[in-house]
């Protein structure tokens, strides 16, 4: 799946009106903004894990261990975000799956890259 395909799915999804919205209310950027906030929250959580790894470990091994611990915690958080999207916001699993992928993958990829950088230093 290419970036253009994911973006096209997001744009298509935002254009749909949900039955739970009051008439006349149309939010095209609501879900996209929510994704940006979730991803930024992931980066803040990653920084928190790295900071505690430095404080408790004191060396590169402690930081990399803490960053590795971030990945399953972040997966759990993004799965809960998907569950809320399906059960509370009215989206389907097929609509939420690409959102889950992006929300999880971007901070996780940065975390994996940071582990490599920290261990080389």
TrEMBL record:
Domain of life: Bacteria
Keywords: Membrane, Transmembrane, Transmembrane helix
Record-annotated membrane-spanning stretches: 32-53, 65-86, 98-119
Protein name from the UniProt record: Uncharacterized protein
UniProt source species: Paracoccus caeni
């Amino acid at each position: 799946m290419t970036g253009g395909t994911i973006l096209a799915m997001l744009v298509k999804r935002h254009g749909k009106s949900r039955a739970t919205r009051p008439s006349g209310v149309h939010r095209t950027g609501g879900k996209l903004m929510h994704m940006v906030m979730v991803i930024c929250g992931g980066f803040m959580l990653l920084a928190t894990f790295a900071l505690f790894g430095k404080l408790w470990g004191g060396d590169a091994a402690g930081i990399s261990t803490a960053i590795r611990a971030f990945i399953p915690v972040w997966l759990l958080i993004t799965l809960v975000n998907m569950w809320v999207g399906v059960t509370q916001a009215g989206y389907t699993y097929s609509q939420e799956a690409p959102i889950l992928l992006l929300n999880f993958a971007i901070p996780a990829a940065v975390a994996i890259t940071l582990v490599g950088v920290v261990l080389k230093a």
